[in-house]
Amino acid sequence: MSTESVQGGGNDPAIEVTPEAAEEALSLLEGEELDTDEAGLRLFVQQGGCAGLSYGMRFDTEPEPDDLVVEHHGLRVFVDPASRNYIGGSKLDYESGLQAAGFHVENPNVVSECGCGESFRT
Fold it and tell me: This protein's superkingdom (predicted)?
């Protein structure tokens, strides 16, 4: 069952979260003993990498007043105003496999990525 609510977003395109990503993030949040009703995953963009920008993620106990707050499958995702311009409309997924496992952002705003896939340019 997919639930979505958006707060503070205005006309910004929301962030989508797959069930796999929500399940993994919620498990990690609970492992950190954070209240999943208030805490969430902060998704942001920072300067860095060979293409200029890179994604960052961390857990926060609550959103900042001007954050976009999106909830999918019980996971709250917080996005600051500066990052919204770069990642609005993106999808957060979790992939696991023999070679690697981790969160992956599918971003429709990206015009190029570096060879290793760790940074991007819009």
Answer: Archaea
**What's the CATH number where 62 sits?**
2.60.300.12
Q: What's the domain count of the chain?
A: 1
Range of the domain at 111: 4-121
Q: Environment class of residue 70 by beta-carbon count within 10 Å: exposed (0-12), middle (13-18) or buried (19+)?
A: buried
90 close to 106: Cβ distance less than 8 angstroms? yes
pLDDT in single tens digits along all 122 residues of the chain: 333 444 444 445 678 999 999 999 999 999 999 999 999 999 998 887 665 778 899 999 999 999 999 999 999 999 999 999 888 889 999 988 777 788 888 888 776 555 555 544 44
pTM: 0.80
